[in-house]
């Protein structure tokens, strides 16, 4: 895992990994189809109210495209491991996986409103789309308020439909597994929102607190992106306690690595890879562990630079380069890279102890690396 | 039903109705308890993330209080009518009724963000509470943005918990009735959001369109507040098609009357009764059927007044009084009152044809009047 380009303070074009075995095309296609079918089917109820609702559906449809479906893949692999079979998942499993992706879409749409982000997966965010629509049609009132309001509604619709999708799926599941699956599904949704609140709070505060940022990483990323999708699969497949605990420990490590990699990509990432402008996190002044570590290790000159430039929306390439340099020179980048390496190494060791069929182990091994590199 | 005070352009203190038999204290107490228990129980997952989440729970708890629980009552009466029994509802029925109230809470919290409302049920709205918290704690960034973001999250949590509550309830229901109940629950949530979008759109437009405002009334109020709660009860009780159709026709009439009364109260209502400042709708410039009718019937002088003063947030009592006078003198108030009378009369006739036990008929009769007067 070479990271020399990041260390030089330039953009990371690619991580040197083969495309993972984590996300298989057949499952992704089924999940994508189910997500879009749900939007179409539930959308008929919406357009029956008025055909003026068509733009709302279009926004949901467009926002639904382009996801990597990592969470869905982890649900399916988690189920395969529990079911001790490396086979095509049945409709209940794919339904829950697709419901999770639809929920994730809703969470992203709402997060983008909260963070006032303009781009997501390389396209304008939902609130930005309706802000423009407001201007284009010469509406009264504030365009930004209209955009936020409509995006809130689009998110609410997707939350509702995700729930409907999961409930439909659970009706096809053997009854003894429904309660356990629902418990994970309910906890997952509650905990990611709690993590988002903590993140919001931290972004408003003067000074960063490492313990809070670590907790945000645990709940918004490690649990939500990796551990809980695996546990959903485990519950769907009726996994014994030992496997659930194994999934948990593995998932928390990989998920934390995933988020730390994301923090690095938010600063050093190639826009073609991340779908966001280069250095976006620095321009937005996002409080990440990476930046908090740099603040803690910076000398007086570096601190002044961090204080002045992090959060400056108009940062040019030159000043962005100098900021990146500070992150490297303080050792913050190295510390984060080392932590990622440790987490990924430990995740691989944990994986060796899991009682799952070999193809499941191979896929999760690839997840450990691929998630950490965010290339899957 | 005397409305002479409104016709004189003054505030309506009370509608001359006895407290309805619609909302019975025992059911309301069970619903309230279940809503609060859900917030407490799910809240433990939230505070396990960090005790800094406590204010989020407090906000949810406080926002949950003070509702009239009309929708829950209609679920229970709808079920009693279908079950042909005038008995205490079982836990599945109360669970769905409480889930609907928790969903309603979420919808109100999000609506208040969209409408930028400062008061709800006589207390500061959730986004306003966190806006103040932001200022009090000297946070960075815009206080209003923080307030909106947290309120979005509080609403999202309540949406999730409403869903969890309904799902738990449905597991106690005989399986043959689950699918029908879920269909109403999913449609209800989707349609009210579609209605809210249409309302938002209409509020941004120059000029009002009566047909769109009528459709907003149908979906945001008539179906959501009366028809669909009755249909939820019907599905829970396994009602035959004839009763479902009867509930529908009755519910749409009563629900429209409810909204029209609400439009009148938004202009002429006593703050003690509505929990909102007097004349709030006029100061906010809310596009209601009442105002749209007045615009249509106004002469040149009246039109100038409407154009100038509707939507002026700083309207004093004097100018508010003159605006009210215009609504009366154009005949808009009379037209709305007449429509309410017709709807309520027709609802009573429809009720006479419903095959339900006498206590159910009496309660729904009281709903027809009480909802129209919004006193229950």
TrEMBL record, chains A, B:
| CDD domains documented for this protein | Trans_IPPS_HT
Check the record and name the InterPro entries matching this protein: Isoprenoid_synthase_dom_sf (IPR008949), Polyprenyl_synt (IPR000092), Polyprenyl_synt_CS (IPR033749)
Ion transport as a keyword of this entry, yes or no, is no
Going by the UniProt record, its keywords in alphabetical order are:
Magnesium, Metal-binding, Transferase
Q: Does the keyword Manganese apply?
A: no
Identify which cofactors the protein needs according to its UniProt entry. Mg(2+)
Family the UniProt entry places it in = Belongs to the FPP/GGPP synthase family.
Instruction: Write the protein's name.
Output: Polyprenyl synthetase family protein
């Amino acid at each position: 895992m070479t990271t020399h380009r990041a260390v030089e303070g330039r953009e990371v074009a690619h991580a040197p990994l083969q495309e993972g075995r984590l996300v298989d095309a057949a499952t992704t296609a089924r999940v994508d189809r189910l997500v879009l079918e749900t939007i179409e089917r539930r959308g008929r109820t919406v357009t029956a109210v008025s055909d003026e609702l068509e733009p709302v559906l279009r926004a949901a449809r467009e926002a639904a495209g382009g996801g990597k479906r990592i969470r869905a893949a982890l649900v399916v692999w988690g189920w395969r491991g529990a079911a001790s079979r490396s086979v095509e998942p049945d409709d209940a499993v794919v339904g829950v996986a697709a419901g999770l992706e639809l929920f994730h879409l809703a969470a992203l749409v709402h997060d983008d409103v909260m963070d006032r982000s303009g781009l997501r997966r390389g396209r304008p965010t939902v609130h930005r789309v309706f802000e423009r629509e407001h201007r284009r049609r010469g509406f009264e009132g504030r365009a930004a308020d209209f955009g936020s309001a409509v995006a809130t509604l689009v998110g609410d619709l997707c939350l509702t439909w995700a729930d409907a999708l999961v409930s439909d799926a659970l009706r096809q599941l053997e009854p003894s597994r429904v309660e356990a699956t629902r418990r994970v599904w309910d906890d997952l949704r509650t905990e990611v929102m709690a993590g988002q609140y903590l993140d919001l709070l931290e972004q408003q505060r003067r000074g960063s607190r490492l313990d809070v940022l670590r907790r945000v990483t645990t709940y918004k990323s490690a649990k939500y992106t990796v551990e809980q999708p695996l546990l959903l699969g485990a519950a769907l497949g009726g996994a014994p306690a030992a496997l659930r605990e194994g999934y948990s420990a593995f998932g928390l490590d990989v998920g934390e690595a995933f988020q730390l990699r994301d923090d690095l990509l938010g600063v050093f990432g190639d826009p073609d890879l991340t779908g966001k402008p280069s250095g976006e996190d620095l321009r937005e002044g996002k409080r990440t562990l990476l930046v908090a570590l740099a603040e803690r290790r910076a000398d007086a000159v570096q601190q002044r630079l961090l204080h002045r430039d992090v959060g400056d929306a108009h940062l040019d390439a030159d000043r962005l380069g100098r900021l990146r340099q500070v992150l490297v020179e303080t050792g913050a980048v190295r510390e984060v890279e080392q932590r990622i390496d440790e987490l990924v190494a430990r995740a691989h060791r944990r994986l060796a102890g899991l009682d799952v069929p070999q193809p499941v182990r191979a896929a999760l091994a690839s997840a450990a690396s691929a998630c950490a590199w965010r290339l899957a």
